[in-house]
Amino acid sequence: MLDVDFIVGNVDVVKRAIDVKGVDLDLDHLLAKHEEVKAILIEVEDLRHERNVLSKQTGKADESERQQLIKESRSIGSKLKEKEPGLREKQDELRELLLLVPNIPGDDEPVGPGEESNVELRTWGDKPEFGFEAKDHVELLELHDWAVASIGNLAGSRSYALRGELALLEMSLWRFALDYMVKQGFTAVALPSFAREAALVGTGHFPGSREEAYELEDDLFLSGTSEVGLNYLRSGEILSPSDLPVRDAGFSTCFRREAGAAGKDVRGLLRVHQFYKVEQYVCCVPDREESNRWFEALLANAEALVQALELPYRLVRLSTGEMGAGKVRTWDIECWLPSANEYRETHSVAEFYDWQARRADLRYRDEDGRVRYLYTLNNTAIATPRILAQLLEVHQQEDGTVRMPAALQPYLDGLEVLGAASAD
RNA sequence: GGAGGGGUGGCAGAGCGGACGAAUGCGACGGUCUUGAAAACCGUUGUGCGUGCAAGCGUACCGGGGGUUCGAAUCCCUCCCCCUCCGCCA
User: Fold this and answer.
1) C-alpha A337: how far from its chain's center?
2) pTM of the model
3) Beta bridge partners of A380
4) CB atoms inside a 10 Å sphere around CB A306
5) What is the ipTM for the molecules in this complex?
6) Would residue A386 show up in a list of annotated catalytic residues for this protein?
7) Which residue, of A9, A193, A308, A414, has the greatest Cβ tally within 10 A?
8) Checking DSSP bridges between strand A363-365 and strand A238-239, what pairing results, if any?
């Protein structure tokens, strides 16, 4: 969410953001609604003031005046009863509109509607050159009996069940990433996957991507990222400078309906409904340079992790149409997937400034005593099972075994190669 | 699932229809005193919105929402959260 006063004072800037981000929103309608709310609010507050004055007098008045005062108050009361519901309704409508206003994209981010406008910033590592017929990750899973083939009967399409070494590998990755984050000064937080609507509005996932979330009974949803929980932990509090920056490494099971991805990536581990994520989350003082430093730190953490996994990747700067409504900028790390002969997203760094903080009510009191909204950022640390696809494919060997990067071996009881027992 | 008790300012805790944005204590901040500190004493100390250049003024908020009333922290309805006991259970 943006500050209304900012919107009013920067109509062109906001309109441009709506345009380049491809958001369906009529800003003039919002501005008119805002004016309308203000006008009614002034009327209603005047009436309330009159009523308060009369009521106060009524309490002190003697019986002779009392009836007259009550009569006057009643007439104001009935006027208020006419106007108040309309005010409430219009305020709600305004809030709904404000929730749709996108953040202003950073000046240096590429402008364009989609993927084709993304800009590759750099690559790291060499794509593997196999001197043999390389397998894709699904073939490797089958070869070693690392996944239950008929799992769809249990949990539907886009589900998976890992077995044996792969099940252990998946869990090793979580711990590997968490340990790394803790070493960087982050606090590990194990989070629920459940979230109330307000928390999903808080991150910006609602109302825009409501259809992506599984809705449960009891007013709960399954969240698609631990960011939802992390971002809401301090909602409504006013933090002090000593609480900052908040640096959390969240872990949770994540659920996504993949409503907009029908028929895409149905095979294998690339796009499943239930997955796991270690998430980096930072909440810092509202300062763009500070935010930029954290953006770079979160990016560096992610790069260090994929480098330790020895996965070739590229860094992509997402275009305005791709970055998401709430973001100032989003940069993705895409790891090389040999079977697809392309890079596939594994990490996504996002910077919000105070857009999320306004929604989730994250504030602090600065050194001068002013209450201000904070800035938030987040990035993936590791998300499984997707990255298993790259890990298996990139590190596969001619005999079908899979070499494990040295950084991961301590988490696998020293195992250097997976699949040795089942390989020919 | 059953029974009961609670949600009030940074914290503790009073208030249960008008003088209440809210006693009191603690904490925090500023000052006096002191070589310095502590203690003591004095003062300040919630948030949102509207309006205004500002000082200020107005309005709303005592878990959320709705209602009764001239007037609600206080009464009613409803939802949420927390605690205790019983049952069940990983």
Assistant:
1) 25
2) 0.94
3) A279
4) 22
5) 0.89
6) yes
7) A193
8) parallel
Q: Is A96 (CB) below 7 Å from strand B?
A: no
The pLDDT of A152-172, averaged and rounded, is: 94
Alpha helices in A256-287 (DSSP H): none
Kindly list the structural domains of chain A, giving each domain's residue range(s) and its CATH number in brackets, ordered by start. Answer: 4-98 (1.10.287.40), 115-423 (3.30.930.10)
Whether CB of A218 is under 7 Å from strand B: the answer is yes
Q: Which of residues 329-368 of A touch strand B (CB under 7 A)?
A: 363, 365
Is the distance between the Cβ of A75 and the closest atom of strand B smaller than 7 Å?
Answer: no
The reply to whether omega before A85 is within 30° of 0 (cis) is: no
Cα separation of the two ends of chain A = 58
Question: CA of A328: how far to CAs of A170, A204, A248, A377, A403, in Å?
Answer: 32, 13, 21, 10, 39
Alpha-carbon distance of A248 to A231, in angstroms, equals 10
Cβ A8 to strand B below 7 Å? no
pLDDT, average across residues A160-169: 96
Is A256 marked active-site?
A: yes
Q: Is the CB of A41 under 7 A from strand B?
A: yes
